[in-house]
């Protein structure tokens, strides 16, 4: 039973150790501590919202050699829509809420 609890704790610890780029000063700390990752993260965050949502994860994996890429299909109902993007560079997990440049149109309610 103790092993099962330890395993579950390790599974949840991975997501808790992710660097949340939405936190104030997170990008400045990243630029100071790891300039190579900062350059990649900056490019990902600037280009990802303009990529087709269905291919964004594959683009991040191949272009930046990222792992554990998760572009959640759960969109926040805002305008423009938002989604949580997470990925790992060299074993360091990053996450950020990004705006999605999704085309769409408002339709009237039909009764």
The total count of helices amounts to 4
What strand line-up does the widest sheet have? 1-4-3-2
Based on CA atoms alone, the radius of gyration comes out at 17 Å
Name the helicity range: 40-55%
Number of strands: 4
The main sheet comes to: 4 strands, mixed
Class by alpha and beta content:
alpha+beta
Overall 3D shape? globular
**Could you give the distance between the termini?**
55 Å
Number of domains: 1
Strand content: 15-25%
Low-confidence stretches: 7-11
Can you give a write-up of this model?
- Helix 2 (26-33) crosses helix 3.
- The protein has a 4-stranded mixed sheet with strand order 1-4-3-2, with helices on both faces.
- The chain contains 4 helices and 4 strands, in the order H-E-H-H-H-E-E-E.
- With 111 residues, it is α+β, with helices and mostly antiparallel strands.
- 41% of the residues lie in helices and 21% in strands.
- The longest helix has 15 residues, at 2-16.
- The protein has one domain.
Salient structural properties:
41% helix; globular; 111 residues; 4 strands; 4-stranded mixed β-sheet; alpha+beta; 21% strand
Can you give me a brief rundown of this structure?
The chain is of the alpha+beta class and 111 residues long. The chain has helices spanning 2-16, 26-33, 35-47, 56-64; strands spanning 19-20, 67-71, 82-89, 92-99.
């Amino acid at each position: 039973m103790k092993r099962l609890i330890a395993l579950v704790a390790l599974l949840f610890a991975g997501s808790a150790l992710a660097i949340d780029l939405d936190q104030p000063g997170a990008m400045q700390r990243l630029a100071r501590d790891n300039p190579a990752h900062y350059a990649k993260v900056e490019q990902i965050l600037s280009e990802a919202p303009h990529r087709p949502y269905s291919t964004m994860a594959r683009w991040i994996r191949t272009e930046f050699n990222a792992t554990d890429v998760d572009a959640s299909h759960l969109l926040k109902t805002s305008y423009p829509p938002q989604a949580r993007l997470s990925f790992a560079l060299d074993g360091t997990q990053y996450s950020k809420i990004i705006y999605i440049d999704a085309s769409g149109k408002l339709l009237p309610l039909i009764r």
